[in-house]
From TrEMBL, chain A:
<protein>
    <submittedName>
        <fullName>Amino acid/amide ABC transporter membrane protein 2, HAAT family</fullName>
    </submittedName>
</protein>
<feature type="transmembrane region" description="Helical">
    <location>
        <begin position="99"/>
        <end position="118"/>
    </location>
</feature>
<dbReference type="GO" id="GO:0005886">
    <property type="term" value="C:plasma membrane"/>
</dbReference>
<feature type="transmembrane region" description="Helical">
    <location>
        <begin position="6"/>
        <end position="28"/>
    </location>
</feature>
<dbReference type="InterPro" id="IPR001851">
    <property type="entry name" value="ABC_transp_permease"/>
</dbReference>
<dbReference type="Pfam" id="PF02653">
    <property type="entry name" value="BPD_transp_2"/>
</dbReference>
<feature type="transmembrane region" description="Helical">
    <location>
        <begin position="250"/>
        <end position="272"/>
    </location>
</feature>
Automatic annotation (TrEMBL), chain B:
<keyword id="KW-0067">ATP-binding</keyword>
<keyword id="KW-0547">Nucleotide-binding</keyword>
<dbReference type="GO" id="GO:0015658">
    <property type="term" value="F:branched-chain amino acid transmembrane transporter activity"/>
</dbReference>
<dbReference type="InterPro" id="IPR027417">
    <property type="entry name" value="P-loop_NTPase"/>
</dbReference>
<protein>
    <submittedName>
        <fullName>Branched-chain amino acid transport system ATP-binding protein</fullName>
    </submittedName>
</protein>
<dbReference type="GO" id="GO:0015807">
    <property type="term" value="P:L-amino acid transport"/>
</dbReference>
<dbReference type="GO" id="GO:0005524">
    <property type="term" value="F:ATP binding"/>
</dbReference>
From TrEMBL, chain C:
<keyword id="KW-0997">Cell inner membrane</keyword>
<protein>
    <submittedName>
        <fullName>Amino acid/amide ABC transporter membrane protein 1, HAAT family</fullName>
    </submittedName>
</protein>
<dbReference type="GO" id="GO:0015190">
    <property type="term" value="F:L-leucine transmembrane transporter activity"/>
</dbReference>
<dbReference type="GO" id="GO:0015192">
    <property type="term" value="F:L-phenylalanine transmembrane transporter activity"/>
</dbReference>
<feature type="transmembrane region" description="Helical">
    <location>
        <begin position="156"/>
        <end position="174"/>
    </location>
</feature>
<dbReference type="InterPro" id="IPR052157">
    <property type="entry name" value="BCAA_transport_permease"/>
</dbReference>
<keyword id="KW-0812">Transmembrane</keyword>
């Protein structure tokens, strides 16, 4: 296999696995706890920007100059997003489920505006560049650089997967399941359902922030446009198609949908005339939206059949 | 007591979740013009049974015959159209609609020409409601709501009127009033099936009582016999009923 | 201080209110927040534009403007076509998607599905019309001074008039007709509605028709007022939800009042803070509302 294919392969997998982390976060919120978050993009954006601001060299275009080592940035990004989730959750989790949906949706809109308008903090529409990449020193050797990055993300995904699996088998996870299946039963057990939900929501949000930071540090550049509702939609599609409720499904869904996305995107770039490409991309999103609806209608447990029952609200 | 059977329920199974039947093989027959009370301890499935007959609870097996029509495959609104009236225990009026609009809404299944007269007929039975038809139902007291709910069910002149705990939450005086009203309704030839916790009041009104335990009828008899049976309270009716019958 | 925001906000708020009626009713009946409602507004605007474009093409010449307004009879007819077709779209979504998922009793799955439908519709519109904005008219309107620093264009006045007519029609429909009573009843308590003898499915269908038609009207008017973009409806979504919650879920007058509050707040924000923060206003109001009175300000407490 040629080196170019290998390095593209590692680039592809790295990107897809970064999505997998977002999916794992969403799965903890929705699949495991039944919390409906329509503001995924906002949470991912917070993680990305916090980590970028903390790790970039000084710039006149945005807040920065802290120059922290990137893993610290990732941790801070995850922690800041978890905190944000805690706030949003505290506001809405005692209310009806779809209030959470609407509020998270609004949260993402508000974050998008902050990223766009608070130029001294975020760099405004131009975003933030020069975000330090892991293995920066290997940047002139694409294969090693790519494999190094892949190794980091793959390890992280594996660790997170195992941790989440353990967590869902722990007493904590069992309570979450009880709350999801039947709130009255959970309350009868004397557990404070709202607190457990809030914890799951914050933890899931933290994972999204971590995923956002990782994405930012692989591309080296972020802008408000990366965090539009399209992103939320992609992550949801990955989880639903993979099979919500299952961590393995979340990861497989991310890989599968990202492969589809990249392949159709590549085909559009290759075969569609330049002036029609914007329209073709629109069709690509429409097809995925349709696919999501079809999976919900026909295979509510996801394509991979890891769970027999549909996720319940 | 020897009217023709109008409603026949046969080995009915009903429940909210598959595999968890709450009504488990209940049977009963209602004859034209009689008042029957379904009694039994909490959790016996009384309310579920009446809701299943109304079409609000899934019935995996059994039969519900109304004058020769099998109701079981029909959705709730079609059962209403066939003459089955139902007054739920709570949330039984539309609070955001006026008294008159609640009645007009129900009259909608009648031919357009007969609606106004049907509403007038019913209002003549309920002077309290007739006095202020434009009042929002949400502003009515518990007893008035119960009356409106009964009036609403009567607008369409049902063959059978089913009531789920009509005395719940009402003062003793109001209970008497509601039950007196039910007596007058029966006098118009409407058959009545009611679920009641208030055993004494129910049996004072009803011709017969059916005791439901564990989702199935265990005992059936004329009201006077049931009231006079000292063992029955302890056996079937649970603590509440013992207190009621003993008071 | 100029009170311009009152005029701008009132009209924007009425449009939000028109859109929010469908949101609040389907929310109350099906117990789910429909994220595709914004796209019904966009769809309506594009249908209206296409229909008026076709009518002009058929006539071989541009239709004459009516008096001082830029709105032509072709645009009005286009708006009517938009209301009909969007009502059809809403029914189609219900038949193909929402009804099946609602039957499984998993209301929140409906929200995900509506989210997918929203994305698909918006992208299809972008595919068909591209993302560059369209305009009903390129005429410049001369604003009229009303005093207190308020200036309005004839179009704004015409649209306020049209909206008030529509609202009056809805009011009569909902309070004076059996269909209207049925909608209010199902919105309050679908189970009792079935007991009373209403075919809840049909009433829900009727509600989709009304919600879709009103969304199309609002979208068309927003298109006349500003421009038509594939994202226009999606950008309306948060104001629609906020208005519906502010007014109390299931309440039509509440949705209108909520819409006016949001519209005025947004216009005030544009005038006094800056247009770039406009989209955050609905969110802030929503947050305040959830903190202070989650049942809504105008609806009766359930």
């Amino acid at each position: 296999m040629s080196e170019a294919i290998l390095s593209y392969g590692s680039f592809f997998l790295t990107t897809a696995l970064a999505y997998a982390i977002l999916c794992l976060g969403l799965n903890l919120q929705w699949g495991k706890t039944g919390l409906f978050n329509v503001g995924v993009a906002g949470f991912v954006g917070v993680g990305a920007y916090v980590s970028a601001i903390l790790t970039t060299p000084w710039s006149s275009a945005h807040l920065g100059g802290f120059g922290l080592f990137w893993p610290l940035g990732w941790l801070a990004g995850a922690a800041a997003t978890a905190l944000m989730s805690l706030l949003v959750g505290a506001l809405t989790l005692r209310l009806r489920q779809d209030y959470l949906a609407i509020t998270t949706f609004g949260f993402a809109v508000a974050i998008q505006l902050v990223l766009l308008n608070l130029q001294p903090l975020t760099g405004g529409p131009f975003g933030i560049g020069f975000i330090p990449r892991p293995f920066e020193s290997l940047a002139d050797r694409p294969l090693l650089f790519g494999l190094g990055n892949l190794a980091i993300v793959a390890t992280l995904v594996l660790v997170l997967y195992l941790a989440l699996q353990n967590l869902s088998r722990s007493p904590w996870g069992r309570v979450l399941r009880a709350i999801r299946e039947d709130e009255t039963a959970a309350l009868a057990l004397g557990k404070n359902a709202a607190r457990y939900r809030l914890q799951a929501f914050a933890l899931g949000g933290g994972l999204m922030g971590l995923g956002g930071a990782i994405q930012a540090h692989f591309t080296g550049f972020i802008a408000p446009n990366n965090y539009l509702p399209n992103l939320t939609f992609q992550v949801w599609t990955m989880l639903i198609i993979g099979g919500s409720g299952s961590n393995r499904g979340a990861i497989l869904g991310a890989l599968f949908v990202w492969a589809l996305w990249a392949a159709t995107g590549g085909a559009i770039t290759a075969f569609v005339p330049a002036e029609l490409q914007a329209r073709a991309s629109a069709l690509q999103i429409a097809a995925i939206g349709l696919g999501l609806c079809l999976v919900l209608l026909l295979r509510p447990g996801g394509l991979f059949g890891l769970r027999r029952h549909a996720a319940r609200g | 007591m020897n009217g023709k059977p109008v409603l026949r329920v046969d080995r009915l199974v009903a429940g909210y979740e598959p595999g968890l039947p709450i009504v488990n093989g209940a049977s009963l027959t209602l004859r034209a013009g009689e008042i029957v009370a379904i009694l039994g301890p909490n959790g016996a499935g009384k309310s579920t049974l009446i809701k299943a007959i109304a079409g609000l609870v899934a019935t995996p097996s059994g039969q519900i015959w109304l004058n020769g029509t099998d109701l079981r495959p029909l959705p709730a609104h079609k059962r209403t159209a066939l003459g089955l009236g139902f007054v739920p225990q709570t949330e039984n009026v539309f609070t955001r609609l006026s008294i008159l609009d609640n009645l007009k809404l129900a009259a909608g299944i009648l031919p357009a020409a007969g609606r106004a007269a049907a509403i007038d007929d019913v209002l003549s039975l309920f002077p309290d409601l007739a006095a202020r038809p434009a009042l929002l139902a949400g502003r009515l007291s518990g007893g008035q709501r119960q009356m409106l709910a009964v009036a609403r069910a009567l607008v369409v002149k049902p063959r059978i009127l089913m009531l789920d705990e009509p005395s719940a939450g009402l003062s003793p005086r109001l209970v008497l009033e509601v039950f007196a009203q039910l007596g007058r309704i029966r006098a118009q030839g409407i058959t009545i099936l009611l679920v009641e916790q208030n055993v004494k009041a129910a049996l004072a009104l009803a011709d017969r009582g059916i005791v439901l335990v564990g989702g199935r009828e265990r005992h059936e008899g004329r009201s006077a016999d049931l009231l006079g049976d000292p063992g029955l309270g302890a056996l079937f009716l649970g603590g509440d009923a013992v207190r009621e019958t003993g008071s | 201080m100029s009170l311009q925001f009152l005029a701008d906000g009132l009209l924007a708020g009425l449009l939000i209110g028109l859109g929010a009626i469908g949101v609040t009713l389907t929310y109350a009946m099906l117990r789910f927040a429909n994220f595709a409602h914004g796209e019904m507004m966009s769809f309506g605007a594009y249908v209206a534009w296409s229909a008026s474009f076709l009518l002009s093409a058929l006539a071989g010449t541009a239709w004459p403007a009516m008096g001082p307004f830029s709105i032509t009879a072709a645009v009005l007819l286009g708006g009517l076509a938009a209301m009909i077709l969007t009502a059809g779209l809403a029914l189609l979504l219900d038949r193909l998607l929402f009804r099946h998922l609602a039957g499984r009793g998993e209301a929140i799955t409906l929200v995900i599905a509506s989210f997918g439908a929203s994305m698909a519709l918006r992208s299809l519109i972008e595919f068909a019309f591209s993302s560059s904005p369209l305009y009903f008219s390129s005429d410049l309107q001369i604003a009229v001074r009303l005093g207190m620093g308020i200036r309005v264009t004839p179009d704004q006045l015409a649209l306020i008039g049209l909206t008030l007519c529509l609202l009056l029609a809805i009011h009569l429909l909902v309070t004076r007709t059996q269909a209207g009573r049925a909608m209010r009843a199902v919105a309050e308590n679908p189970t009792l509605a079935a007991v009373v003898g209403l075919d809840v499915r049909r009433v829900v269908g009727l509600t989709w028709v009304m919600g879709g038609a009103l969304a199309a009207a609002a979208g068309t008017m927003a298109g006349i007022l500003v421009q038509i973009r594939p994202n226009m409806g999606f950008d309306f979504l948060l104001p629609l939800f906020s208005a519906a919650i502010l007014g109390g879920i299931g309440s039509i007058p509440g949705a209108i009042l909520g819409g006016i509050v949001i519209g005025l707040a947004e216009a005030a924000c544009v005038q006094f803070v800056g247009a770039e923060w406009r989209a955050a206003v609905a969110f802030l109001i929503l947050v305040l509302l959830l903190l202070l009175r989650p049942r809504g300000f105008f609806g009766e407490a359930a």
